[in-house]
Amino acid sequence: MNSPFSPKRREVEEPEDAMTNPTLDKPPVTSDSSSSENDEVKTRILWPEVEGFIPNPPNAYVDIHGILDNSLSLALPAAWIEDPDATDVPPSSNLLYNSPHGFGKSVLAASFAVEAAKGLGYAVPMITVECNADVREHHLRGGLQIDPNGGTFFVPGPFLQAIYLANQVGCCVLNLEEISALTPGAQKMVNSMTDWRTGMFVPQLGYHVALRPGARVLVVATMNPKSYGGVYKLNDDLRSRFDEFVVPYPSEKAERKILFSVCSGIYDSANDEHRKLIKQSCQLAAELRGDNYDYLLSTRDLRHLIENVHKLGGDLKVPLRFILAKYTGNQRESVLDRVEAVFGKRVLEETS
Questions:
Q1: Does domain 30-246 have CATH number 3.40.1180.10?
Q2: What confidence score (pLDDT) does residue 166 get?
Q3: How many angstroms separate the CA atoms of 159 and 107, rounded?
Q4: DSSP characters for 54-91?
Q5: Which of 103, 133, 215, 229 is the most exposed place for a label (fewest CB within 10 A)?
Q6: pLDDT digits (tens, 9 = 90+) for 133-142
Q7: Which secondary-structure segment (H or E) carries 98?
Q8: Residue 30 φ/ψ region, left for φ over 0, alpha for ψ in the -120 to 50 degree band, beta for the rest
Q9: Cβ distance 285 to 293 under 8 Å?
Q10: In whole angstroms, what is the distance from residue 260 CA to residue 305 CA?
């Protein structure tokens, strides 16, 4: 099996005329927008390179809930891996990861692409869409821009890029980061695009760009619970298109495992002092994850705490003050009490 980090093109038949069949390996580089030979204008298309979209997460996702394994089974049917061109294999599931902030949703999506590559035997590119309230159709589909040298060029949006990259290697992951940040109007637009995996008509170019037989785009999306600020309720039509994983808070034991994994370069599980710091950090987080607090500490917060203690030579004061700064009013006083109960009564006092 080839290395998942060495891009390999699936064996496909080269079209006789890629210009007339953009569904195949090489979508047209130019398309005529005028029938006049004397006034011909070319539209260039800036298709992406596979190598620029191979994900490289900073650390492996610690799959304490079995979500990654289940995701791979749902999105990569064994029958399709064995024979990508078979017509009687089940479709790939669209996957939605719903969890509070700071629990590794982005790393989960990237790790999904990396693990998919291992199963398929070739590098799987990933296109990421940073969803927000300003996203419009042209951001997803693409648009024309003026070429200073004459004519225009078309910049494909992430949906078209994913189709193109899947046609190049066989598979591409489309990652919709924080999909719940899309406005209701933008969500309706995405409704009509989530089935684009077989193709999409591009009015600016005047033709249909489609997946080649056997190629697939694997759609994953992440979201925060609707109780978070800056998010919208997903409409039922869009939500029904996904298999949704609700990622719960980890137990203290599981969170210690995660932290030792992501901080493995600086912390050793065999070191008593290291084990004590991580245990205390997880205990503090568990005690502050309740309805009484507006801010709920995440695994990312704990990682920053632990890394900052290391950077400061073991000094706890400044990293713990960073934690305390996330709270105000009566909640801040309550958090201070919990910090001193876990780490020591005078842990935040200045020394003379």
A1: no
A2: 95
A3: 21
A4: ----SS----TTSHHHHHHHHHS-HHHHH-TT-SSSPP
A5: 229
A6: 999 888 888 9
A7: strand 95-98
A8: beta
A9: no
A10: 13
Contact call for residues 72 and 109 (beta carbons, < 8 A) = no
Q: H-type helices in 212-298, by residue range? A: 236-239, 252-262, 272-288
Tokens matching residue 152: 């225009």
Q: Convert the pLDDT of each residue in 60-80 to its tens digit.
A: 899 999 999 999 999 999 999
pLDDT at 26: 43
Q: Is 156 helix (H, G, I), strand (E, B) or coil?
A: strand
CA 64 to each of CA 4, 140, 218, 250, 306: distance values in angstroms, whole numbers, following the listed order: 23, 33, 23, 8, 20
Q: How far apart are CA 96 and CA 244, in angstroms?
A: 5
With contact defined as beta carbons under 8 Å apart, do 262 and 303 qualify? yes
Q: Report yes or no: 178 and 131 within 8 Å, Cβ to Cβ.
A: yes
Beta strands (DSSP E) in 124-227 are 126-130, 142-146, 152-156, 171-177, 199-202, 207-210, 216-223
Range 336-347 average pLDDT: 88
- The segment(s) of the chain belonging to CATH 3.40.50.300 are 30-246
Rounded-to-10 torsion of CA 331, 337, 339, 342 = -140
Measured distance CA(177)–CA(162) in Å, rounded: 15
Identify the CA nearest to 67 among candidates 202, 195, 257, 220.
220
